[in-house]
Write a structure and sequence with these properties.
The chain is mainly α. Helix content is 49%, strand content 9%. Among the domains are: 2-173 and 236-283, Rossmann fold; 380-435; 443-533, Arc Repressor Mutant, subunit A (Orthogonal Bundle), CATH 1.10.10. The strands form 5 sheets. It has a 3-stranded parallel beta sheet. It has a 3-stranded antiparallel beta sheet with strand order 6-7-8, with no helix packed on it. The chain has a two-stranded antiparallel ribbon with strand order 1-12. It starts with a strand and ends with a helix.
């Protein structure tokens, strides 16, 4: 790998969204290292479920801002991935084993709920471990932080006492967004019942700031006094967010557009405590192919497991980089385009100067480090069409064609290409093959395809893609397709020969698939073998 060094003056002039965000973080510090010794970027996670595509997106985008920040200044940086694992279990998830075992733990802090998988100390510990494995698999640079650890170790004690002293101001900051009934009993603090161990959402009978305690009615009706320190309480989630910002002195945190009002309230509470809210922005949530918001309960849109089944994680990071403050669709059909656009950018990067590199999404994805192993001589779209034409159900079939096209390529010396081959086979089997639909050519298409076969027979075996493409154009033009109709000619090629309505440059496809193989493909299609089978 090669490190790309961006001069600070070029970094300062860059107007990409990541650099604009990095400049906001830098402005928050006043241009000097904070007292804690580093500039802190944070992301949050609720461990009642497993990490998902939104988790990846938030950490990936925050990393991109950190990469830009490091180009602007040599200040030390850290990223905390914070797990709200002291939250009470609200309901039993439907996707875990031994769910009935969890029923009796409703309301308990997630770190006190047994692990239904039987592998960790608690349900939260299991999901936290999965989170760290998830983030580690992508190489993210982060430090994991547990809410339970911060509350029980005393790390939040000073901030909790401060919040207790500002109890009514903090309460008033939240009340405007609550309904009348909830507002009447709302407290920023959620005591942990010493009798049942549950996280209680109850009104405060008394707030004793001088003693550092609260008084409330426990579930059995007894008045109970607890200190707010030492893990005896946790905060409601908006005050909890502010508590974290204040106690950790968070410099930057982004959040989804659905949390705009909550982030505003958390910012106000941070200021009430005497702190400064972090810089950040609100990203748009993803939409499905019908422009509906993605919902886990609806099952619409893509999961991260589905994306990673058909494409490398770098392509997902690339998609996350694009226009984060604009709504984008997230469904299967966008995957091939995202992969090839990522490939285009990563292949440009080594030849670019610093001014162009900071405009290249690959720079943000790889932190300015040029990975030498991300080379592929073949686009993903071309691999998908090769899989379709060759009816490839395993990588070995693909490599037979690839090695005729690039004799020196092997899975060992072209690992990124090898990954793409595996993805292409899976994508073909799951999406392309079930929807293949061949048709017979009409008279004009038949004449043009017969002419194309003759032209290919006349070409030398080692003709390159551009030469072949010229003959493909000529076969169309010579058989009645004017300039306006050439798109229809190429669509006909794919529908008749491959059973799809579109594909990459056909000259490049023939160069990869093979001249004789393509001629045979044309003859088989003209003989009706494909349309009859369909």
């Amino acid at each position: 790998m090669t490190q790309s060094n961006i001069p600070s003056d070029i970094a300062a002039q860059c107007r990409s969204w990541a650099f604009e965000e990095a400049k906001k973080a830098l402005a928050r510090t006043g241009g000097k290292v904070p007292g804690k010794g580093y500039v802190l970027f944070e992301t949050g996670y609720g461990p009642s479920g497993l990490p998902h595509i939104g988790t990846f997106g938030e950490v990936a985008r925050t990393t991109m801002v950190m990469n830009a920040f490091r180009a602007l200044t040599d200040m030390p940086t850290k990223m905390f991935c914070f797990s709200d694992d002291m939250d009470g279990l609200r309901k039993v998830p439907t996707n875990v084993p031994n769910g009935e075992m969890l029923e009796q733990y409703i309301g308990q802090p997630l770190t006190k709920v047994p692990d239904p998988f039987g592998t960790h100390e608690s349900f939260a510990h299991h999901n936290n471990a999965r989170l760290c494995e998830f983030l580690d698999s992508f190489g993210f640079d982060y430090e994991f932080l547990s809410s339970t650890e911060c509350y029980t170790s005393g790390r939040f004690d000073e901030a909790l006492l401060k919040m207790l002293s500002c109890f009514e101001e903090v309460r008033q900051a939240v009340l405007p967004i609550l309904g009348e009934e909830r507002a009447a009993t709302y407290s920023p603090f959620l005591p942990i019942s010493p009798k049942t161990g549950k996280v209680l959402q109850v009104p405060m009978k008394e707030v004793r700031a001088d003693d550092g305690t609260i008084v409330f009615e426990d579930e059995d009706g007894t008045l109970t006094e607890l200190p707010v320190t030492g893990g005896h309480v946790k905060c409601q989630w908006r005050p909890d967010w502010a508590l974290r910002w204040y106690a950790l002195d968070v410099d930057y945190e982004m959040a989804g557009e659905d949390l705009i009002s909550s982030a505003d309230i958390a910012g106000k509470i941070t200021e009430i405590l005497g702190g400064k809210k972090p810089a950040g922005f609100h990203y748009k949530l993803f939409l499905d192919e019908h422009n509906q918001k993605i919902s886990k309960s609806k099952g619409n849109g893509l999961s991260i497991e589905e994306w990673l089944r058909y494409a490398p994680h770098e392509s997902l990071a690339y998609y996350m980089y694009l226009r984060p403050t604009s709504g984008k669709k997230l469904y299967f059909d966008i995957i091939p385009k995202a992969v090839d656009e990522y490939i285009t950018y990563i292949q440009k990067m080594p030849e670019q100067g610093p001014e162009d590199q900071v405009q290249n999404p690959a720079w943000y994805i790889h932190g300015g480090v040029l990975p030498s192993s991300q080379h592929t001589p073949i686009s993903f779209a071309l691999l998908l069409n090769l899989a379709s034409a060759a009816n490839a159900h395993d990588a070995d079939v693909m490599w037979g064609f690839i090695q005729s096209y690039v004799p020196d390529a092997t899975p060992e010396n072209a690992p990124f290409l090898a990954r793409l081959v595996d993805y292409a086979v899976r994508y073909y089997e799951d999406f392309v093959l079930p929807s293949k639909s061949y048709r017979a050519p009409d008279d004009r298409e038949r004449a043009a395809l017969e002419d194309l076969a003759k032209r290919l027979e006349a070409l030398p075996a080692d003709a390159d893609g551009e030469t072949i493409q010229t003959e493909v154009f000529s076969a169309g033009k010579e058989n009645g397709y004017d300039k306006k109709e050439l798109r229809s000619w190429f669509q006909a090629i794919y529908e008749v020969l491959i059973g799809q309505s579109q594909g990459p440059r056909f000259g490049s496809f023939i160069e990869l698939y093979g001249m004789q193989e393509t001629i045979s493909l044309i003859h088989d299609a003209l003989d009706g073998k494909f349309s009859k089978a369909a």
